[in-house]
């Protein structure tokens, strides 16, 4: 590839990266919690590089336990000042991990004064059902102490790659 073409490609890539929801969240100083990254191709590659010695310290990236500790601290501090909503994209560990911070604070740490999530919204391309991998329906989350009976709850059954950017653009005023 000619140098000009490569430079153009790098510039285009950087421009596109600046327009991502991850960058927008970082610009708003929103924390990123990435649970279960170990259960992915990246996790496999990272493990391989730890085994081969390319990565000298396995703790270069936080573990799920460290993420939960940080999330508990963030939730406790922030919910004391204002309500925090829960916006879940997809199912599985991406949603199950962070929403469990409230029951953990209430049940395991006996911090019952910590408020429940202020709202719940899930985007999923799979119909939710009781106990399904795509995520439980909001009513089931009430029985586990993750949401309250009066918590505003919304489930959007659609392709998250289309819906999430539209919702984020609206919330961010774009």
Describe the protein:
The protein has 174 residues and is mainly α. It has two domains: 1-30; 33-172, Deoxyhypusine Synthase (3-Layer(aba) Sandwich), CATH 3.40.910.10. The chain is built from eight helices and three strands. It has helices spanning 3-18, 21-27, 41-52, 64-79, 93-99, 101-108, 138-143, 160-172, and strands spanning 85-89, 119-124, 153-157. It has a three-stranded parallel beta sheet, with helices on both faces. Strand 2, helix 7 (138-143) and strand 3 (153-157) form a beta-alpha-beta unit. Helix 4 packs across helix 6. The chain starts with a helix and ends with a helix.
Q: Summary?
A:
The chain has 174 residues and is mainly alpha-helical.
Fill in the keyword field for this structure.
174 residues; mainly alpha; Deoxyhypusine Synthase; 2 domains; three-stranded parallel β-sheet; 8 helices; 3 strands; 49% helix; 9% strand
Which stretches of 5+ consecutive residues score pLDDT under 50?
A: none
Number of strands: 3
Beginning-to-end CA distance, first to last residue:
36 Å
Strand numbers in spatial order across the main sheet: 1-2-3
Per CATH, the architecture of the largest domain is 3-Layer(aba) Sandwich
Which strand-content bin applies to the residues? 5-15%
Give the count of structural domains.
2
The CATH topology assignment of the largest domain is Deoxyhypusine Synthase
Derived structural class: mainly alpha
Largest sheet: 3 strands, parallel
Compute the average pLDDT. Answer: 82
Order of helices and strands: HHHHEHHEHEH
Look at the structure and name the CATH superfamily of the largest domain: Deoxyhypusine synthase
Rg for CA atoms? 19 Å
The total of helices stands at 8
**Can you tell me the overall shape?**
globular
What's the helical proportion of residues?
40-55%
């Amino acid at each position: 590839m000619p140098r000009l073409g490569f430079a153009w490609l790098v510039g285009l890539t950087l421009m596109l990266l600046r327009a991502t929801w991850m960058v927008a969240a970082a610009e708003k100083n929103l924390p990123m919690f990435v649970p279960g990254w170990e259960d992915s191709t990246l996790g496999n590659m990272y493990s391989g590089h730890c085994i081969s010695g390319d990565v000298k310290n396995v703790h270069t990236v936080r573990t799920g336990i460290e993420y939960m500790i940080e999330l508990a601290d963030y939730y406790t501090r922030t919910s004391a000042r204002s309500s925090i909503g829960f916006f879940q994209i997809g199912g599985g560990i991406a949603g199950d991990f962070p929403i469990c911070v409230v029951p953990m604070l209430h049940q395991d740490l006996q911090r019952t004064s910590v408020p429940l999530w202020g709202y719940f919204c899930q985007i999923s391309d799979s119909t939710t059902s009781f106990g399904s991998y795509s995520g439980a329906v909001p009513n089931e989350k009430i029985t586990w102490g993750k949401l309250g009976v009066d918590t505003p709850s919304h489930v959007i059954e659609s392709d998250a790659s289309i819906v999430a950017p539209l919702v984020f653009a609206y919330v961010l005023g774009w």
